[in-house]
Amino acid sequence: MKQDRPVSSLLKTQILHLQEAEFRLPAKYQTNIYIHAIQTEGDAGEYIRQVTKAIHDAHADRISRVKAKAKPERTFAIAAAAAKPHKKKVTKATAKKKNRK
Question: How many domains, in total, are found in the chain?
Fold first, then answer.
């Protein structure tokens, strides 16, 4: 890459994609670089470096905040024995029906 060479169309497309990604970042991570002022490959490389660093920094900051808010792991005690099943109450009417059979 030559620092003074004019920006190619491929590099311009990459700059546009990075600008779209940059606009999705929180305001404190945006570079506020006017991309139409980028004329050389050196300028483009510097812009790409700054946006890539901002993306990485924003991601690392988000991960550290999520880990800090993580809930403690819930554990369940394992029962030593299973509970005994409940016995059905026998009413007089059901008892009479069983005796008839």
Answer: 1
Distance CA 14, CA 86 (A): 69
**Digit-coded pLDDT (tens) for 11-66:** 999 999 999 999 999 999 999 999 999 999 999 999 999 999 999 999 999 888 88
Chain position carrying tokens 């690392």: 60
The number of residues making up the chain comes to: 101
Tokens for 68?
Answer: 């800090």
Specify the pLDDT at position 81. 64
Q: Let me know: does 7 contact 40? Beta carbons within 8 Å.
A: yes
DSSP three-state, residue 87 = coil
pLDDT tens track for 48-57: 999 999 999 9
Expressed as residue numbers, the domain containing 23 is: 1-101
